[in-house]
Design a protein that fits this description.
Length: 132
């Protein structure tokens, strides 16, 4: 069973920065890091940044120019650098991954890296709170 563990969340003032990390353990070679999602209270989970099937990076319009996704394959770790944070960025942030089988890759090609409906593995989430 794959486990994804996020860290790096916290409380910052508007304009501040945070760096989220997501480490995969247990059979991490069988997954494909898909990206980061977030969910604010009363809202649906939304894609923030992700890797498409051809490794292109996709960002939600609301975070373009402020957030940067990256990964370190040697460490099986996914990162999200968040700069110029705004109060509207306040949410629980989740790391997401896909299984390595062909059907998961097809789903990624069809629906894209910001679609939460195709995610196979979720982390437990890390809270980000931005105050004005």
């Amino acid at each position: 069973q794959v486990q994804l563990v996020e860290s790096g969340g916290g409380s910052v003032q508007a304009g501040g920065s945070l760096r989220l990390s997501c480490s995969a353990s247990r059979n991490s070679n069988s997954i494909y890091f898909m990206g980061w999602f977030r969910q604010a209270p009363g809202k649906e989970r939304e894609g923030v940044a992700g890797f498409e099937s051809d490794a292109r990076i996709t960002y939600a319009e609301s975070v373009k120019g402020r957030f940067t996704i990256s990964q370190d394959n040697a460490k099986n770790t996914l990162y999200l650098q968040m700069n110029s944070l705004k109060p509207e960025d306040t949410a629980m942030y989740y790391c997401a991954a896909l299984s390595s089988d062909a059907s998961a890759k097809v789903a990624l090609q069809v629906f894209g890296a910001l679609n939460p409906g195709i995610v196979n593995y979720w982390g437990q989430g890390t809270q980000v709170t931005v105050s004005s």
